[in-house]
Specification:
Layout: E1 6-13, H1 20-39, E2 43-49, H2 60-71, E3 74-79, H3 94-102, E4 112-118, H4 120-125, H5 141-155, E5 160-163, E6 166-168, E7 173-175, H6 178-196, H7 206-222, H8 229-240, H9 258-271
Parallel strand pairs: 1-2, 1-3, 3-4, 4-5
Antiparallel strand pairs: 6-7
Helix pairs in contact: 1-6, 2-3, 7-9, 8-9
Length: 281
């Protein structure tokens, strides 16, 4: 595998039911744009979102902490009107556990943390089908805990950005999230440039863009590649033997790793400064 590529991860923290629109906006529009920009710097961007990943109540906190550690030094948190789910026998919600473990308990240590608070008017306009769906009931213990958590973030001197949104009654979801998306994009990109000492790429040519995209795909394909050295050796022998035919077909069932095999071959040839053929993947 090429050693020139780097991987940047960011942990996404928020409650779930009331933050679907924000998370979807980031995944559909912001993160793809960020990945495209970072291709030119040979950087993979990975967003870690546990909203689908935790199935065991007993393991929720441990899974969360492990994921946060893997994403350091970046932590991104969006807060609306809910304090969130509190696991059995614990006094804190998963949201607060994430914030305290990821940032508040490590104040002063190097890191990039970003907090985005939804404007209270936008949260108040969200139409609830059941009490507590999008905001904590007024006067409740969870409402008090949420306010204390936001105050702890502010008192720690952490930067917060308050974003606006509108409730679409027909779609029954929040819209108008471009302000949030643009800020997240700018914050993450600035942090990555700062960490690696990079400068923006002005106008990369089409060939460079295509090559960067191809190499990024190959890096992803080979990230967990293991074994099959006998096949790699046979393929390398083929491309280095001018007496053989010029075409080789690699076949196999769907999902058996054909693309990963060819990607690994590409990287091994590059490392040997081989220029036998151009390999599409």
């Amino acid at each position: 595998m090429s050693t020139n590529w780097k991987t940047v991860r960011v942990f996404i923290s928020s409650t779930f039911r009331d933050m679907q629109a924000e998370r979807d906006h980031l995944v559909r529009w912001v993160f793809p744009r960020l990945r495209e920009n970072l291709l030119h710097h040979r950087i993979h961007f990975v967003d870690v979102d546990l909203r689908w990943g935790v199935t065991s109540e007993q393991d929720a906190v441990d899974v969360m902490r492990e994921a946060i550690d893997e994403c350091r030094p970046r932590f991104l948190c969006m807060i609306g009107g809910r304090y969130g789910w509190v696991p059995p026998n614990r006094g804190r919600s998963i949201l607060e556990e994430e914030i305290r473990y990821g940032v508040l308990d490590r104040i002063g240590q190097h890191g990039y943390s970003f907090f985005y608070f939804r404007d209270s008017d936008a949260t108040g306009a969200m139409n609830e089908e059941r009490l507590g769906e999008f905001r904590e009931p007024h006067g409740s213990d969870n409402e008090r805990k949420l306010e204390q958590l936001k105050q702890a973030i502010e008192h720690a001197g952490l930067r917060q950005f308050i974003y606006t949104a509108q409730w679409d009654a027909q779609q029954q979801r929040l819209v108008g999230l471009n302000e949030l998306g643009d800020r997240v994009y700018a914050d993450l990109l600035e942090s990555i440039y700062d960490e690696f000492g990079l400068a923006a790429v002005s106008e990369p040519d089409a060939r460079a863009e295509e090559r960067a995209a191809t190499e990024a795909l190959m890096e992803q394909l080979t990230e967990t590649y293991v074994g099959r050295q006998d096949l790699i050796h046979a393929l390398k022998s083929f491309v280095s033997n001018n007496d053989l035919a010029t075409t080789l077909v690699v076949t196999g069932p769907a999902g058996s790793g054909k693309s990963a095999l060819i990607a690994m071959l590409y990287f091994e040839l590059i490392q040997q400064n081989a220029a036998y053929i151009t390999i599409p993947c």
